[in-house]
Amino acid sequence: MLLRRAFSGRDIMQEYVMCPVCGGRVGFSSRDQVSRCSYCNSPVLGADQDRNCINHPDRLAKGVCHVCGDLVCEDCLQRRVADYGGKLFTIINCFKDECRRQSSWAQPLNPEYQQLTNMDWADSIDNKILRITGLGSVLMMVFELIFILTMLYIQYLTPWGLADPPNIPYWFVRGDQLLVMMILGNFISALLLQTALQVYVHEKQLGAGFVLFVLLILEAAFLVYRGLHFNLLNYPVREYPLALLVAFSLGALMILIGSILSIQTGFKKRRQIKHARKELGLTAEGDTW
Question: Is 200's pLDDT higher than 60?
């Protein structure tokens, strides 16, 4: 997008482009110079800028030094990776002493380690695991919502729920125990959904699989307890407890399958990482980037 602005009696053509790193808007008035993103400070090339390496004019540059902004080829650059805000952030620096010093906050990338720990093989199974566990967790939350609405209906609007002595226990007012337990049930289902979203992250997949399995057992035990506590086995409409069981079983089965696949795939990834570290003789955690 081109914008014309009046400045000191002159018209300046300023062009805006999207930062390739953060997506922020970068404005520059010179098309043959490197500009900086005001959000992430990443260098952005001008539209008419020379694309060749500053040290080797006959070679096409493969990156831009994030410190000085020079274009460098593969032989003149060093890639570094660091954890920034929970995400891996990759930068490039040239071999000037000052550029290396200002890039020391990130760890040098180890190409051999990256090659040995390449997990493209897991993309397909990771997508399936995420869909299975995610859908199962959503079904569990919907199940909890329907459960509480139906139980409140039975408690307040049916002769069975209003019977004296009560078929559904309460502490002080009708439905107080019901509300407390349903809030706990929804909390567990929310934890299930949050954990299900972690199975897509390589380094969290194994732990997320185990946590899903434990949460599923806890949710199942809590459901059985609520069913017995609220006397649902004696509810005159037999179809209701049966429908609850079928609905819960569908969501639980999906989460169970997803958690098992997550654990199995997570173990494979962990073995791959251990093999890579052993193969390269790496000990320091920073050397594994």
Answer: yes
Per the CB < 8 A criterion, the answer to whether 144 and 186 are in contact is: yes
- How many whole angstroms separate alpha carbon 15 and alpha carbon 28? 6
Residue showing tokens 């808007």:
25
Residues 236, 160 contacting (CB under 8 angstroms): yes
Q: What are phi and psi of 236, to 5 degrees?
A: -65, -30
Q: How far is CA 8 from CA 29, 67, 128, 279, in A?
A: 15, 31, 59, 63
pLDDT of residue 9: 45
As a whole number of angstroms, the distance between CA 199 and CA 187 comes to 19
Peptide bond into 165 cis (omega under 30): yes
3 state DSSP class of 115: helix
Quickly count: other Cβ atoms within 10 Å of residue 19's Cβ.
19
201-206, long-range: CB < 8 A, 24+ apart: 202/119, 202/122, 202/269, 205/126, 205/129, 205/262, 205/265, 205/266, 205/269, 206/262, 206/263, 206/266, 206/267, 206/269, 206/270
Contacts 24+ apart (CB under 8 A), 277-284: 277/113, 279/116, 280/110, 280/112, 280/113, 280/116, 282/110, 282/113
pLDDT at 10 (0 to 100): 46
And the tokens for 200?
């897509």
Q: Cβ contacts of residue 268 below 8 Å, gap of 6+?
A: 122
Q: Which among 15-24, 148-157, 196-205 has the top mean pLDDT?
A: 148-157
What is d(CA 147, CA 182) in angstroms, rounded to the nearest whole number? 8
CB-based contact 161:168 (threshold 8 Å): yes
Instruction: List, in order, residues 6 or more apart from 60 with CB less than 8 Å away.
Output: 51, 52, 53, 73
Mean residue pLDDT across the chain:
84
Question: The pTM is what?
Answer: 0.69
